[in-house]
Design goal:
three-stranded antiparallel β-sheet, Arc Repressor Mutant, subunit A, 502 residues, single chain, alpha/beta
């Protein structure tokens, strides 16, 4: 019993690795899972009591359970059988595709990561880059929403910062679940995004089976009351204007909606605008089909140079944030009340009629989104400069003329019901801030006391002017209706959405 046994070194190494593996699986892993599960439960309890956020059971269900539910969904199984017959495929092969699609789509929400890590990162990033403001929120309308409703934030898409900004500002009201494109499916970003509750979407998938799996997940989440955030435009604006809506996700949500059910479906329009969009020039390049395609290396080099320049400005005390980033939350649209007014039941309509009805809903939502897009200082001044150039005033405008025209535009926008954000409630200061941003970026040049658009940067200047062109009547977009509740225009940030958001 006490004799020494000699074994080869390679065998000892294998036994040691097996022992370490057993200790990890049987002792360390369960302890770590218990520790993190306890922390998550404490966070959920705190969030429920402090912020009055009710997490649907669907959102905190284990990811594998949701994958199994989606995998065994009767409609998905029926589609599998149909594809096997149509394409003469083995059932196991098609089921493996379904499993791959389900694992790709289903998120793994972690309340601790969302509220303890993600929220703090989003707040730090947003505040370090912009002066973040909430210009308006229809709180009376939001208070009328039934607690049993499924809430969907629908918003315009100007920048990839939209994800960060809205999640940060809405964190005291809801934990948002985003639909994220394939661009984010890179390690380790996709793990972080999944833990924040987002799900991945293939924007142009031609596989009907994939679209059905995605549809069933969206419907399951909607029916369970998961709060979601959707960009109806489907992608970033290219020229600064609102894009026509893509109604795929919206159709998924409405296809099975029952107006007589206990749970209502409520859309909250959200308008976002920035004094500076980091992707402005890269988006404008897409308008030029002859422009050479930039490589990943080139993009990384440009980003590195941009970051190095801003770091140097910060070190030397000459760096400023990129102006204002403003978010407005409009009046909720209850689908139960909307369908009661139209007399339609979307779940009972044939596909063609339902698509037409969903298209009308999309038009209403896009109009409401457009109505609440904030008119920021840069957008106002850019619009004045573009109009001056279009009128053929090549000599430029004096500062007094520019401020006079900008003031007239602000008053006209307020009269039409637009949401004009005026920092410090000082119109002269707002116009000065917008002009300073444009001159610092050399989008507007000053010569002998006259301001004029820089010829080489006219497209970028127009990009910012276009963010409010639907409000000024420069396009065929319908005129926005006056905001409910009286006077439109400048609104103070409301407490529930803007507390501590300076």
């Amino acid at each position: 019993m006490t004799q020494t046994v000699s074994i080869p070194v390679w065998l000892f190494a294998i036994l040691l690795l097996l022992a370490l593996w057993a200790a990890t699986v049987l002792l360390l892993a369960p302890g770590m899972r218990w520790f993190f599960r306890r922390r998550v439960n404490l966070v959920i309890h705190e969030i429920n009591s402090r912020l009055n956020i009710d997490f649907p059971s669907f959102k905190v269900t284990r990811r594998q359970v949701l994958i199994d539910r989606l995998f065994h969904d009767p409609k998905v199984q029926a589609a599998v059988d149909a594809q096997c017959v149509e394409q003469n495929l083995k059932r196991g092969e098609v089921m493996r595709k379904v499993d791959r699609y389900a694992r790709e789509i289903v998120p793994s929400f972690n309340a601790y990561v969302y509220f303890r890590i993600g929220y703090r990162i989003a707040r730090a990033v947003a505040r370090s880059m912009y002066r973040v403001r909430v210009g308006f929120a229809d709180e009376p309308g939001m208070r009328r929403i039934s607690p049993k409703s499924t809430i969907v934030f629908v918003m315009n898409h100007r920048s990839n910062m939209d994800y960060v900004l809205v999640a940060f500002l809405a964190a005291e009201q809801a934990a948002l679940s985003y639909a994220v494109g394939e661009w984010a499916r890179v390690w380790p970003l996709q793990q972080l995004i999944r833990s924040m509750g987002a799900y991945f979407v293939r924007r142009n998938s031609g596989d009907p089976l994939y679209r059905l799996v995605l549809q069933r997940y969206v419907q399951m989440a909607t029916e369970a009351g998961v709060c979601q955030a959707v960009f109806p435009e489907g992608g970033l604006t290219i020229d600064g204007k609102l894009r026509a809506p893509k109604l795929g996700l919206l159709d998924y949500m409405l296809k099975n909606f029952n107006p007589g059910a206990e749970r209502d479906l409520v859309f909250i329009p959200v308008g976002i605008n920035y004094d500076r969009v980091l992707e402005d020039r890269s988006q404008l390049r897409k308008l030029d089909r002859a422009a050479p395609r930039r490589s990943v290396g080139f993009a990384l080099a440009v980003s590195a140079a941009f970051n190095a320049k801003n770091l140097w400005l910060a070190v030397t005390g000459r760096w400023y944030r990129f102006g204002y980033a403003c978010v407005n939350f409009g009046s909720p649209l209850s689908m139960r009340e909307y369908l009661r007014g139209t007399g339609e039941d979307l779940a009972q309509l044939p596909d063609a009629e339902r698509h037409a009805a969903v298209s009308r809903v999309g038009e209403v939502l896009m109009r409401r989104i457009g109505e609440v897009i904030p008119a920021l200082p840069v957008a106002v001044v850019a619009n004045v400069m573009e109009r001056s150039a279009a009128e053929g005033d090549g000599s430029g405008l004096s500062e007094l003329e520019l401020k006079s025209r900008a003031l007239e535009l602000m008053n006209a926008l307020e009269h039409r019901g637009a949401r004009v954000y005026i920092p410090r409630q000082d119109q002269d200061y707002a116009i000065g801030v917008g002009l300073r941003m444009l001159t610092l970026r050399r989008l507007v040049i000053e010569q002998e006391g006259l301001f004029a658009p820089a010829p080489e940067n006219r497209a970028v200047l127009a990009y910012y002017a276009n963010s409010i062109c639907h409000l000024t009547g420069d396009t065929a977009a319908p005129a926005p209706e006056p905001a409910p509740g009286g006077k439109a225009g400048v609104q103070a940030a409301t407490p529930a959405f803007a507390a501590g958001r300076a």
